[in-house]
């Protein structure tokens, strides 16, 4: 039997969940008297303990420890590659590794052993105590996490943070938490798809667990300031590989706590609202300027409830408040912000009933003092009629104040036993308690939305509003949406949440094509500038005062399309030039966050890195200087707020945004002769152009280039362009994907570049 289209109701939305996995925080790794103490675990425990309690209200907490049963190989059963990262792997790669080196002395995790029972140095193997499950470890008394020992237990401060009724506590006998355990089944049955991972050894258990997690298709975020390590070089390389090779994201514990305090994960349901309405209007035509003009909206509201004047006053006040917080025009454009711009953005706004979705902190600024109140109250009643009751509001304020006053300090108990671990447990508890008090005194640096007179980044960034006139801007958006050949793109074996196209200034015979290289598995074929994009490029050139010959064009199809935190790769960008981002369509917010390496050494380790927020409304230009690009990361986060909480400028153009990132590229290829020259190539002159590498040589040089990209993404004041990029690279690191067919504006795109 056939059913008519749309005759069956749609199924309920499936809401996935999150889990926090804490690895190997047992006595052997945490305690000072452990078999392999990790020195930097103690400093981050004051950050981790409150995070666990707050995460438990939003997701699931999973404690994974190790129990030694049998020696285990360091090869992953799933991938066949090394599942841990040891010092000698790096030395061997750099040519400094001496075979048969022994590194298993219990007094030092990396000193040669003097034990007469140590393995013979004639063995063709390297022994490293960090590989604590290795088959060739010297003696069993140096094994970590032996069953029944004190080392396999958790310190009292960790035990106090556990909740036996709500948390999952499990043991593994391999480096990875996924091998021979029920962890994967546990996650699948509870619809957990997002993991936040931290632990005592970033290059061992954390590395192995992240590797298996991404192989199982789970989304992984590592908590960067809650990762323990013994060797910094191993830690840095492990984090780089987890981010660049495995696709894991990074976050600070404070940033994660802020997201949790911003109610990320709470669902706003339609039944929580007392009234529902839906407006369906036809799409705009070329002849009609707008189908939702200010007058028609007011007329409709007047017919609905006779409150036209009050609604108009509210909308006007809201738009003026918003305009006051947005970035103004630099220089000659500064005087163009007025009430007309608010009316223009309102004209293209459509109101639609949004499905139940999670809230996001992408445009919220949660404050430290509101965290406990937000975590202890459900948001479902926020829209109820009680909000208009002064008595109810006063009562809620009093409850929040009481909750803050009753917030207990971290409680740390010490072990009462006669064994030799009493001193270690007491030292651990004292350290955690004192550092916990110090952490509470830290003031959170709230992200701020900058105004026209504020310093953005390092001071070499600017925002220009109303680059084009109203008609040109609107026409450019709809023309580009229809005419540009949008493509899906993939990076790190996954489809990225945007559509992409690439255009540039190409010679008639394709003998000189600008190329911009960045981390990506594939990239659209570069096409010549079409007339509309060329018009936008020339307008952007006037703003920066130098040529722009390359454009990465991206379609954000809705507010959940996003781009992860990154800095632009400057291998091929002419030194000293500006990176220009032009926005058409719905307003989105760019977030700048200072790189961890850019913070001063004197800064408190628990202090949040400085961050800034910049609104990117329709018809605006954001100019990014290379100094800011060196010291700051930028991103556009997914915004999962319901439509009722968004500004009209964020709902304009159906929530769609087209981003044009114009760059001045100094590296070129000849597509016919397959040669390369310029700033980012080994040959700087066209007359001495060299052929693009292929085969093994290309693969080797490509790895070096990707490694250089990673260093630029993480380094700040110690970044040296000449050291990493100066010699040039004659290789293209991505496949070129041609657009055989147009992709409708409803699918995804590209790697971590805006």
From TrEMBL:
UniProt xrefs under Pfam families: 2OG-FeII_Oxy_2 (PF13532), Isochorismatase (PF00857)
Region feature Disordered, mapped onto this chain: 98-121, 279-451
Domain Fe2OG dioxygenase: 547-666
Compositional bias ranges of the Basic and acidic residues kind: 98-108, 292-310
Biased composition regions of type Basic residues, renumbered to the chain: 396-407
Bias type Polar residues, positions: 335-348, 411-421
Similarity section: Belongs to the isochorismatase family.
Designated name of the protein: Fe2OG dioxygenase domain-containing protein
């Amino acid at each position: 039997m056939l059913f008519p289209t749309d005759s069956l109701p749609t199924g309920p939305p499936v809401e996935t969940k999150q889990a926090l996995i804490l690895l190997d925080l047992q006595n052997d790794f945490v305690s000072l008297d452990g078999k392999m103490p990790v020195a930097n675990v103690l400093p981050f425990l004051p950050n981790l303990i409150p995070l666990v309690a707050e995460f438990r209200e939003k997701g699931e907490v999973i404690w994974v420890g190790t129990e030694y049963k049998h020696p285990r190989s360091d090869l992953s059963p799933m991938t066949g590659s090394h599942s841990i990262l040891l010092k000698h792997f790096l030395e061997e790669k750099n040519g400094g590794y001496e075979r048969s080196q022994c590194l298993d002395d219990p007094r030092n995790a990396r000193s040669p052993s003097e034990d007469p029972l140590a393995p013979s140095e004639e063995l063709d193997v390297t022994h490293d105590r960090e590989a604590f499950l290795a088959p060739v470890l010297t003696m069993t008394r140096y094994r970590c996490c032996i069953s029944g020992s004190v080392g396999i237990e958790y310190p009292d401060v960790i035990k106090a943070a556990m909740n036996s009724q709500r948390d999952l506590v499990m043991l593994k006998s391999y480096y990875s938490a996924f091998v021979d355990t029920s962890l994967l089944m546990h996650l699948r049955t509870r619809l957990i798809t997002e993991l936040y991972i931290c632990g005592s050894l970033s290059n061992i258990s954390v590395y192995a667990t992240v590797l298996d997690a991404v192989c199982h298709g789970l989304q992984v975020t590592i908590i960067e300031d809650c990762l323990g390590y013994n060797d910094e070089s191993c830690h840095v390389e492990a984090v780089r590989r987890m981010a660049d090779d495995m696709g894991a994201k990074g976050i600070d514990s404070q940033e994660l706590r802020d997201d949790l305090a911003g109610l990320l994960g709470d669902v706003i349901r339609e039944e929580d609202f007392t009234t529902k309405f839906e407006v369906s209007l036809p799409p705009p035509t070329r002849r009609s300027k707008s189908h939702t003009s200010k007058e028609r909206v007011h007329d409709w509201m007047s017919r609905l409830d006779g409150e036209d004047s009050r609604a108009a006053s509210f909308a006007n006040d809201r738009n003026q408040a918003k305009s006051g917080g947005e970035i103004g025009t630099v220089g000659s454009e500064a005087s163009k912000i007025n009430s007309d711009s608010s009316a223009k953005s309102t004209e293209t706004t459509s109101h639609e009933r949004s499905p139940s979705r999670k809230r996001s902190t992408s445009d919220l600024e949660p404050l430290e003092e509101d965290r406990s109140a937000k975590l202890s109250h459900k948001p479902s009643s926020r829209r109820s009629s009680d909000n208009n009751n002064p008595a109810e509001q006063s009562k809620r304020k009093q409850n929040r104040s009481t909750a803050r006053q009753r917030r207990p300090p971290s409680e740390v108990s010490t072990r009462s036993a006669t064994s030799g671990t009493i001193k270690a447990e007491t030292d651990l508890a004292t350290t955690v308690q004192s550092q916990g008090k110090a952490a509470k005194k830290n003031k959170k640096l709230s992200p701020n939305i900058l105004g026209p007179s504020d310093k953005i980044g390092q001071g070499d960034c600017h925002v220009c509003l109303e680059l084009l006139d109203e008609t040109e801007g609107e026409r450019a958006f709809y023309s580009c949406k229809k005419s540009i050949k949008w493509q899906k793109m993939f990076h790190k074996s996954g489809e990225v949440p945007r559509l992409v196209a690439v255009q540039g200034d190409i010679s008639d015979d394709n003998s000189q094509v600008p190329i911009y290289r960045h981390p990506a598995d594939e990239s659209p074929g570069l096409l010549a500038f079409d007339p509309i994009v060329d018009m936008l490029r020339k307008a952007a050139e006037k703003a920066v005062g130098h040529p722009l010959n390359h454009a990465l064009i991206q379609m954000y199809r809705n507010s959940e399309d996003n781009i992860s935190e990154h800095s632009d790769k400057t291998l091929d960008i002419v030194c000293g030039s500006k990176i220009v981002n032009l926005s058409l369509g719905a307003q989105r917010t760019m977030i700048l966050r200072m790189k961890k390496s850019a913070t001063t050494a004197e800064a408190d380790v628990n202090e949040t890195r400085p961050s800034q927020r910049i609104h990117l409304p329709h018809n605006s230009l954001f100019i990014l200087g290379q100094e800011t690009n060196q010291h700051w990361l930028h991103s556009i986060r997914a915004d999962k707020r319901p439509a009722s909480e968004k500004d009209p400028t964020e709902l304009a153009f159906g929530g769609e945004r087209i981003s044009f990132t114009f760059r001045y590229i100094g590296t070129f290829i000849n597509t016919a002769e397959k040669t390369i020259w310029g700033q980012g190539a080994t040959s700087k002159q066209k007359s001495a152009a060299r052929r693009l590498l292929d085969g093994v040589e290309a693969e080797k040089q490509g790895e070096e280039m990707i490694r250089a990209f990673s260093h630029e993404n993480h380094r700040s004041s110690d970044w040296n362009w000449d050291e990493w990029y100066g010699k040039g690279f004659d290789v293209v690191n991505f496949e070129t994907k041609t657009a055989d067919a147009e992709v409708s504006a409803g699918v995804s795109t590209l790697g971590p570049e805006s």
